[in-house]
Amino acid sequence: MAPVQEVDIATFAPAWESGAPVLDVREDHEFVQAHVPGAQWIPLADLPARVAEVPSDATVYVICASGNRSKRGAEILEESGRRAVSVAGGTKGWIRAGHPAESG
């Protein structure tokens, strides 16, 4: 299988603004602290059993804290026939770049 495509924050931001689906694969305590507004949350360990909950009609942007778990999450989605890319830099990079975040 081809390696998972990675996009940087500058590429992800306009996709997010246009309503692209975002999947956060971090643990609950991380998600509660801060996440990309509107992100769907499924911890990476739960994703194989919950792939059906992820949109299948658009490219899904998978995000974690810094970009490691999101690569694996995107692989899981790709293996299930969905289109997915990993967001390099993750939520930390998103916030550092000055983009909005939600908590809770």
UniProtKB/TrEMBL annotation:
Domain Rhodanese: 19-103
Protein's UniProt keywords contain Transferase: yes
Alphabetized PROSITE patterns for the sequence: RHODANESE_1, RHODANESE_3
GO molecular function list: thiosulfate-cyanide sulfurtransferase activity
Domain of life: Bacteria
InterPro entries attached to this UniProt entry: GlpE_sulfurtransferase (IPR050229), Rhodanese-like_dom (IPR001763), Rhodanese-like_dom_sf (IPR036873), Thiosulphate_STrfase_CS (IPR001307)
SMART domains: RHOD (SM00450)
Pfam families in UniProt: Rhodanese
Segments crossing the lipid bilayer: none
PANTHER family: FAD-DEPENDENT OXIDOREDUCTASE (PTHR43031), PYRIDINE NUCLEOTIDE-DISULPHIDE OXIDOREDUCTASE (PTHR43031:SF1)
Protein name: Sulfurtransferase
UniProt keyword terms in alphabetical order: Transferase
